[in-house]
Write a structure and sequence with these properties.
By secondary structure, the chain is mainly beta. It has 3 helices and 32 strands.
Length: 495
């Protein structure tokens, strides 16, 4: 029998679930599932299989180091079936065979058991993407793993028939909605803390069409990216890595509050000598939201925090981090001229579109790479937090689903109660001819005090009205990370 998990992993907002299984035809406890919904909602979940065997357990290991699990909801004909399975990464299989934890702290090979030296450390636990008829689960510290969308069986690490030689692959590639091309990259591509970036373009079938290797100006996280019809953009976050610090037992990442923002811009089929690294005033670059071109300029919309957006799991050089919920963010638009005579971006290149205080924004996918109006995002309203019967704060990450109309400036929210926290939602258009933003928002909702979860479906343009359907899950769902919607036409029948 495995030993108990440490208290730091069981007494916070979440705890390991360690569960695989399925529930056929989830119970609808309110409303009805819209019959026109036909697709697969998939979510990547970090779920630790075995308790870490570390004297110095880093917070990033607790928050994001868990084994990758794929959670899936097949929605069709007014019914919802549920299935969840672990991703059988090399790491997962080695630890399962040993019946104990063999890998150490987050992205720290020096803390591993000697028996796994040189083995792949990735857990494939951050995001899923669907391309060329294949489903992939990925984390940016290793290769993506291909998953069967019906059974959730692991097919194996994806190398595009040997074409991917980078050691790493982003969890946030971008798919051109007009050409079907997939633009992707791996940072730290030649090993942890290196500045190497491998940039790839795959055609609509998944075959490699273009490859370029670059070097970033600093060794730091590049969690997300963006594309326009002609360019690839690499936003570097102010979270740096250092090999000597890792060797000394320190954390992989630290927050550098005075570091400039860097935006690497490369033509979509560009070579290494065509990349430009633009510098901007300090700011914490979050996930990208959308990007396109207008009057010869790149318009890049992203969520930008006014401080350490990874607090408290990533600290600064002094080991300090602000408390949860104290750092705010906004939807920011950058205007970048690839052909400008300077690499400096000033405040005149930046505009704030909305104060958000949330993360994981979704837009209508039909409006990617072009001007858009509607944004949907889980947000936090600190004034609506509450305590339990013992007076302790109820652990909540996001307590609202929010809709931002960027044309009118109007914001609408749905607040499900003082002791509930949302997971990453997905937006589904009502139909191919529906107006922009008209559709459904689907999300998992955790209720920590009740130790249960539910699936909620809302009309996207009428969030304050609340769910049009609530479905009960007969078990607690560990907080996942990113969710993705796959159209039913691309999903095989479940069995």
């Amino acid at each position: 029998m495995t030993k108990a998990f440490p208290a730091i992993m069981t007494q916070g907002i979440d705890e390991p679930c360690r569960f695989e299984g399925e529930v056929f035809d989830l119970e609808v406890v309110e409303g009805a599932v819209p019959p026109e919904l036909d697709g697969l909602l998939v979510q990547a979940v970090p779920d630790q299989t075995f308790p870490p065997e570390l004297a110095n357990l880093h917070l990033m290991t607790v928050a994001a180091g868990g084994d990758g699990s794929v959670r899936a909801f097949r929605i069709k004909d007014g019914h919802v079936d549920f299935r969840t399975r672990y991703v059988r990464t090399e790491r997962f299989m080695l630890e399962r065979a040993a019946r104990r934890s063999l890998f150490g702290n987050y992205r720290d090979p020096f803390s591993d058991d000697a028996s796994v030296a040189g083995k792949s450390r990735t857990t494939a636990n951050t995001a899923l993407f669907f391309h060329g008829g294949r489903l992939f689960s990925a984390k940016e510290d290793g290769l993506a793993y291909q998953i069967d969308p019906a059974t959730l069986d692991t097919i194996g690490a994806w190398t595009a028939d040997g074409a991917i030689t980078s050691q790493t692959f982003t969890a946030h590639p971008k798919i051109d909605p007009f050409t079907g091309e997939l633009c992707a990259f791996g940072y730290a591509a030649k090993g942890e803390t290196t500045r190497d970036i491998a940039y790839y373009v795959f055609d609509a079938s998944g075959m490699l069409a273009h490859e370029t290797w670059l070097e970033a100006p600093i060794s730091a996280m590049i969690h997300d990216c963006a594309i326009t019809p002609n360019y690839m953009i690499f936003p570097i976050m102010p979270v740096t890595s250092d090999l000597d610090r890792l060797r000394a037992g320190g954390p992989h990442f630290i927050y550098e509050g005075d570091m400039p923002q860097y935006f690497g811009v490369l033509p979509r089929r560009g070579s290494v000598d065509e990349v430009r690294w633009f510098r901007a005033p300090p700011g914490f670059t979050g996930h990208t939201v959308n990007s396109w071109e207008e009057d010869g300029k790149i318009l890049l919309d992203l969520l930008e925090a006014d401080g350490n957006g990874f607090a408290p799991v990533v600290s600064d050089r002094e080991g300090q981090a602000p408390p949860p919920g104290s750092v705010r963010n906004a939807l920011v638009r950058w205007r970048i001229d690839y052909h400008a005579n300077t690499d400096e971006l000033g405040h005149e290149h930046r505009s704030i579109l909305a104060q958000v205080n949330g993360e994981g924004a979704h837009i209508d996918p039909r409006y990617e790479m072009r001007p858009y109006r509607h944004m949907f995002v889980p947000t936090l309203d600190p004034s609506k937090l509450t305590t339990d019967v013992n007076g302790r704060p109820v652990p909540v990450m996001f307590n609202q689903l929010s809709h931002f109309d960027l044309e009118t400036g109007i914001r609408n929210d749905w607040f499900p109660g003082p002791a509930a926290t949302f997971q990453d939602p997905v937006f589904v258009p009502r139909g191919p001819d529906a107006a922009e933003g008209d559709g459904f928002l689907i999300a998992l909702l955790n209720r920590p005090l009740e130790r249960r979860s539910e699936l909620v479906i809302l009309n996207s343009l009428d969030l304050p009205a609340g769910p049009i359907a609530r479905l009960n899950l007969p078990l607690r769902m560990r907080l996942g990370i990113h969710a993705t919607w796959i159209d039913g036409a691309n999903v095989p029948e479940w069995f």
